[in-house]
Amino acid sequence: MSAEPSLPTPSPAPRFGVWLIGARGSVATTAIAGCAAVTAGLRPPTGMVTETPPFTSCGLPPLSSLVFGGHDTVDCPLPKRAEHLVAGGVLPHGLPSAVHAELVAADREIRPGGPLPGDTDGGPGRTHDELIDVFAADIRDFVRRQGLAGAVVVNVASTEPAPADGSLPPSSLYAAAALRADCPYVNFTPSTGLHHPALAPLAESSGLPYAGRDGKTGQTLLRSVLGPMFLQRALAVRAWSGTNLLGGGDGAALADPAAAAAKNAGKERVLADTLGAAPQGEVHIDDVPALGDWKTAWDHIAFDGFLGSRMVLQTIWQGCDSALAAPLVLDLARLVARARERGLSGPLPELGFYFKDPVGDGPASLAEQYAELRRFAERLRDGADERGAQR
């Protein structure tokens, strides 16, 4: 009796790396723990746009295929960091122990960041180019050891001031390392990253997709909805002022006026783009350490109605920044990994839905940005992207 032919062994599904800059911070820890929880069916994917139609059918890497690593300058292990987030009300009780193995696995893949004291160009430590080489080698080693189909580098570190002397700030060193390691790059912060003039030609010639900057999670998300409303209803906005109260690492970082100025630039751009001109008023950021990872954003909008009737709209947004940001980080990692798989390169303005200050040209209204994102999903599904074909 002849033996039945054996069926071919299916190839293992490709896995993709998510390399986080600021990998032991609140946003990164929440993203890693959240990905594990959703994959295990412990929690629903609330806040993840990529887990809704039409994105579920456009070939994105499954959450179960994501492998995490990154750079950080702090040494608090991820399981301990997750416990701190439970104490602060960010993560639910019991979650860190339920996903302990995944947190430990990701923590093993976190490498020392920089620059460290003494690391300056022309100083006694490592030069900028040496730091970029070290960071790029860490990323390449991660991809090789884990047998990954590729990796996306995502900056979720604390906001840094804009450079005043033309030198490369830390965010730009990491961005350059991503390019050197042949990885797409996403800047979820208002820091300089790939926006540095010295990196523009490298980004253009890299053949890699990239996106950013500054994730749109709360106050600016609301502004991108309300601004078009006033414009479309022909209501004249006279002034738009705001205040942010926040603690945690972001609050401490944004206590620096230069860092706060970098953050506020994106908030102001949204109003100028949606209203046609920037109204009077400013955004103030106050560090309130007692708030931890929670924030309150208040807006005061003065506008004119029919026959000059003066009116005011006030909004209050209270939320947990890490819980708002983490699902967007997972969305962006999957979308950009798929874009690379489809051969796209250069800036991805279609991802402006996620950012205060998106790269490339695109609409500022959230509704229009969402329509662009849906069209982008269609192109990812079909692989019919003219830009990718031309490059």
From TrEMBL:
Residue intervals of the Myo-inositol-1-phosphate synthase GAPDH-like domain: 218-322
Superkingdom assignment: Bacteria
Record PANTHER family: MYO-INOSITOL-1 PHOSPHATE SYNTHASE
Membership in a protein family: Belongs to the myo-inositol 1-phosphate synthase family.
This protein's name: Inositol-3-phosphate synthase
